[in-house]
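Quick question, first post here. What does this chain look like in 3D?
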Amino acid sequence: HSTVNELQALNQTGYMLHHLFKHYKGDDFEKGINVYDVYTVLYLLHPEKFEVEEADVQVETNGTLTKGATVTDFKSAFPNCSVVMSIEPKVFKEIFIDALKYCK
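> Answer (accepted):
Ran it through. Tokens below.
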């Protein structure tokens, strides 16, 4: 019984995500689907569950081959954001499913 299949029966949002994950990633949610936008939302809801590091993050705007690339300096004396480094997969699944229960 995979998390992807668990989503299908949750609600309309879960049903939609089930089909997205099945189409793009197959049935491997437990093996490491990285849903970065979800990390952001869940971090805002539960910052204590995530390992973060302060860093200076800049976006390259002039490079011909690197335009739009993100450059992250974890040793900067002037960090401008918190970067999510990791979360325990079981905890991620738990708070992800819990947050989806509030959706339509």
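The mean pLDDT is 84.
The radius of gyration is 17 Å.
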